[in-house]
Amino acid sequence: MTEIKRVGVTRRWSDAVIYQGLAYFVEVADDSSQDIRGQVAQILLQAKQRLAQIGSDQTRLLQVLIYLADLQDAVVLNELWDAWIPDGHAPSRACVQAGLAPGYRVEMVFTAAIMTN
């Protein structure tokens, strides 16, 4: 049986979970007082850092599920997203409206392949 590796484990969640060459993690803005542009920028930076931490990068993303408090924010999301994802490496992606915690405008759920030796 393949071992499950957990990174940044707390009582309620792990920062990332790795199993059979796949990594699963969720990002929300560290500073929820920012507008949608600020929150998306934070999440994309945090995701890039998390990917590097677990031995992956943006070219290895398989799927991203994006939850927006307001779908009208998709214009800003897509602008920043398009600049962040390398050409030819877009993952499968869904973007839906959802009730999020107060102050939060966006949450992203990532699945990525990790690089193996």
Tally of helical segments: 2
Q: Please trace the helix and strand order, writing H or E for each element.
A: EEEHEHEE
Please state the CA-atom Rg, rounded to the nearest Å: 14 Å
Shape: globular
Determine the structural class based on helices, strands and strand pairing.
Answer: alpha+beta
Number of domains: 1
The assembly state of the depicted protein chains is single chain
CATH class: Alpha Beta
CATH homology-level superfamily: RutC-like
- CATH names the topology as 60s Ribosomal Protein L30, Chain: A
Proportion of strand residues: 25-35%
Number of strands: 6
Low-confidence stretches: none
Distance between the termini: 19 Å
- The CATH architecture name reads 2-Layer Sandwich
What's the rounded overall pLDDT mean? 96
Largest sheet: number of strands, sense, barrel closure: 6 strands, mixed
Spatial order of the strands in the main sheet? Answer: 1-2-3-6-4-5
Helix content: 25-40%
